[in-house]
Amino acid sequence: MTLADTQPQALNFECETGNYHTFCPISCVAWLYQKIEDSFFLVIGTKTCGYFLQNAMGVMIFAEPRYAMAELEEGDISAQLNDYEELKRLCLHIKRDRNPSVIVWIGTCTTEIIKMDLEGLAPKLEAEIGIPIVVARANGLDYAFTQGEDTVLAAMVNRCPDKAPVAETEKEERNAISKLLNFGRKQEEVKAEESEYADHPPLVLFGSLPDPVVTQLTLELKKQGVKVSGWLPSKRYTELPVVEEGYYVAGVNPFLSRTATTFMRRRKCKLIGAPFPIGPDGTRAWIEKICSVFGIEPQGLAEREAQIWESLEDYVKLIRGKSVFFMGDNLLEISLARFLIRCGMTCPEIGIPYMDKRYQAAELALLEKTCQEMGVPSPRIVEKPDNYNQIQRIKDQNIDLVITGMAHANPLEARGINTKWSVEFTFAQIHGFTNARDILELVTRPLRRNNSLKDLGWDKLVREEAKV
Amino acid sequence: MKLAYWMYAGPAHIGTLRIASSFKNVHAIMHAPLGDDYFNVMRSMLERERDFTPVTASIVDRNVLARGSQEKVVDNITRKDSEEHPDLIILTPTCTSSILQEDLQNFCDRAQLEAKGDVMLADVNHYRVNELQAADRTLHQVIQFYIEKARKKGTLPQGKTEKPSVNIIGISTLGFHNNHDCTELKRLMADLGIEVNEILPEGASVHNLKNLPRAWFNLVPYRELGVMAAEYLHTEFGMPYVDITPMGVVETARCLRAIQKILNEQGVDVNYEDYINEQTLHVSQAAWFSRSIDCQNLTGKKAVVYGDNTHAAAITKILAREMGIHVVWAGTYCKYDADWFREQVSEYCDEVIVTDDHTQVGDAIARVEPAAIFGTQMERHVGKRLDISCGVISAPIHIQNFPIGYKPFVGYEGTNQIVDLIYNSFTLGMEDHLLEIFGGHDTKEVVTKALTADSDMSWSKDGLAELNKIPGFVRGKVKRNTEKFARDRGIETITAEVLYAAKEAVGA
Fold first, then answer.
1. Which residues 9-68 of B are in CB contact (within 8 Å) with A?
2. What ipTM is given for this predicted complex?
3. Can you give the pTM of this predicted structure?
4. Residues 6+ apart with CB under 8 A from B127
5. For B168-193, what is the HEC assignment?
6. A6, B216, B323, B331: which one has the fewest Cβ atoms less than 10 Å from its Cβ?
């Protein structure tokens, strides 16, 4: 495929060597411990893991985080020490200091290699100390970056209660006084509340998002009469959603394939395969798909999308016609590329650590459709990319914006290539209609910055590289 | 197993990578799982490096676990050899490869058959040594490799340089203020009429390592990095070395006198006393500062010091000996070299603390309530919590400790920088204290941060809840914008939906 080739074609999947830079999946503790307020994350690994969290997660370490390393010493590796006794000692310590509602053990490369049976030890220790212990093997042997969240959520799916607890209203009825005082009013409110929703089977959404975004997406669905019965993860471990056989589930992030599989296979839920609510186009497609599964005719979505696009125009005009290259490190790449192509960008390559074509099917279809409608060539999707080769391609193709990890960002900038640090997309609020602007805020930032510097003649700040 | 939240010295491979990426045209290949290459992120961010960090990983994944690395490591080495033509490739083991126990030396030997550059296995054990020890060992290993190679080929140059010259050993990437220190040391040597033969490892080429014995002596400014190499050169070539850190006025003078002695023993007649005198009294401001009334005010004030051996020892001596400050305790995280530290600081502080447990350090700070802390980034945060100001004097450090402006810690300019650092930490603390006694600058209570104290808008419970999730510093603005939005549209009660509709409308 050449750049001059403007005829849209089917998506083209490739796989390279896997020599690429990304974060270790244990980084998920950094946002998950903040999301799940009563949790404690114990990463069972070595100094290497600890040093990564300390450095990559920057200042968060100083806010008395609810996570710690169980640092393995030589005696643990050579099994001179008993794993169970050691873990028990540390977990009791954590229980005493923090009293969490759940301890999540993050298995690492080392526990894999020495075959520490975390899944086997956890139920025993859980019974002994009286705190649930969830095991997630988020290691660099198997996964990349955001997939860490996937392994944690997949483990949590199994902990979701399978029966709704006795409903609040029933409990209240037993209390005669409160019934006398409140009954009439409450009942009306409940009815009014219920009537806003269409009659549909329970829907549980999965994916960890900041609370404001949870509210936004929940309200967005409410406008269509779709009720969100629960969300995995919730703010607290003790509030995990009820999941019964036959419930519907939908993902909000593209890296949650194991969680989706676990919902389907272990809890017999039905997965709504939709594009992800990233960008106004993605959000609309996501809502439409959910509505269509429940047989609801979506109201006012087209207008809403149009209105959002209109409000984005000042940013969109900065990137229209420019090219973007995803080096690939966090699995958000397909959705972001699809949104940016809709904004009028071209995208020769989407690097991605791992491509689940089934879980992302609807997103891939939307990408293909978007390319056709915008009349741009389909990107090549490169799974397990090779960063060295990618940098050669970036130089050859004269890319306007490279979305990449911090390891490459400064060196590329010094060579006059605009970059955006990819990790920011995982920490910024990018979901739903409301946050579309935040995505473009990130994407256009290097372009806006460089616009203000462009007359200074400082774009290449390395000496000519000697050709050997 | 050890419960740990924070560590002062990194894992061993970080030390090896620091050495490898300090040299010019040396590439390190880590035998490591995906995600262990965050060294590149640190170097690129902290040092704001313009070039790609010459570190790649030969990824250990499930297939490697099942079948061993086989050709993978060899292929990665030869591939990098042909792509970038490094002079040397250092295969770097990590914690993962330590337990896999593959024969990495064999991979190196096989790769060497094809590679044009040299290939070497870093001799560091993850479970035995930390970042600093590994760096020291790797630097020694690289020097030894090239000295022996030159010896075998008979290309080892004979004799010394014409004029007195020095190798400065221990300047490395990601070292605390190392690049500024290096400039200052070069300047110092120039003042003394000493030529700089080689600087290691930062910016050095492995081809020049054979020239090391041509210097008249070695200078090792940091205790943690370079002593092994200096010892090796001493045993092999009888090269004397000076390992006194020229940090602080007294220590700088001591270092210069040691250099003077070494040179005079080799038959030159130098006398640096006038230079030391001139610098101390009139160029560096530190001696004058000790005498000034500013410093008088600091007399007997309590301080604690914690960091690596080099910096914690030097700062302790400066505080106690040059400023009359009462160092309640001085501590180090270099447990493996604790005796040296004790010997250095015992007479300058009440107590010596040797630990790498940050909670123990934090508790020790809380216990003595010093007027100022001199420590690492971790102690800075302890200080924040306890409301005690902190000067950062040692790694581990953040991006703000890689200043662009010239801020050496060694030499005479270094003494000036340290005075500022120390003085600013104390005055800020005192100012804070005065403010507290007199109730702050502005004693009038601020009624509301918003411009309109009373609004006629009513907020629903969920709306208010959402508003409270917005970070404090923008909340007022969001509140005003939302209320304006609601007023314009005749909305009476502001719910969460209205809040977000307003956000979309203003495009913020």
1. 10-11, 13-14, 32-38, 40-42, 44-45, 48-53, 56-57, 59-62, 65
2. 0.88
3. 0.89
4. A73, A74, A77, B95, B98
5. EEEECCCCCCHHHHHHHHHHHHHHHC
6. A6
